[in-house]
Amino acid sequence: MAILDILEFPDPRLRTKAKPVGTVTDKHRQLIKDMFDTMYDAPGIGLAASQVDVHEEIIVIDISEDRSEPLVFINPKITVLEGEKEKMQEGCLSIPGFYEDVERVEHCLIQAKDQDGKDFEIEATGLLAVCIQHEMDHLDGKLFVDYLSSTKRDRIRKKLEKQHRLAAKHA
């Protein structure tokens, strides 16, 4: 079990755009396993490779209560199936302790590769749709705070910077 370090806002590496994965290798499969270990340990329901400073298009998600439905999305592409937007409170492992309402499309189709490099597609609604969109934003260097007002985003950034300074002082 390997727990990876999760980058925290406002770390500039979170703004790096991920690159598509060519051939899925054993190295990618190990990263995916480590990402699941990290996500479950945090605990969270989704994690993008960008959050652990690997800038490749890889996402892991498990929205089940008992951690029994792990999903892997490599090179995900999204198609909106219904234009209706749903407001849902989001949090983020890279922005610990903060939760804000974000509006996202409630019904979408995702095309991706799995951990074996096989193409698949999945129709997503509700929490799964929101989680996929949230993690795909990470692959584009975007964070949920980017959907907030600049005042809220700055307040969150300042609080996290203060926490980082205090943690560094006590390390």
Structure description:
With 171 residues, the chain is an alpha+beta fold. The chain contains 3 helices and 5 strands; from the N terminus they run αβββββαα. It has a 5-stranded antiparallel sheet with strand order 1-2-3-4-5, sandwiched between helices. A hairpin with a 5-residue loop joins strand 4 and strand 5 (119-125). The longest helix is centred in the last third of the chain and has 20 residues, at 150-169. It is globular. The chain starts with 25 loop residues before the first helix and ends with a helix. The relative contact order is 0.18.
Question: What is this structure, in a nutshell?
Answer:
The chain is of the alpha+beta class and 171 residues long. The protein has helices spanning 26-41, 126-139, 150-169, and strands spanning 46-48, 58-61, 71-92, 95-113, 119-125. Strands 1-2-3-4-5 form a five-stranded antiparallel beta sheet, sandwiched between helices.
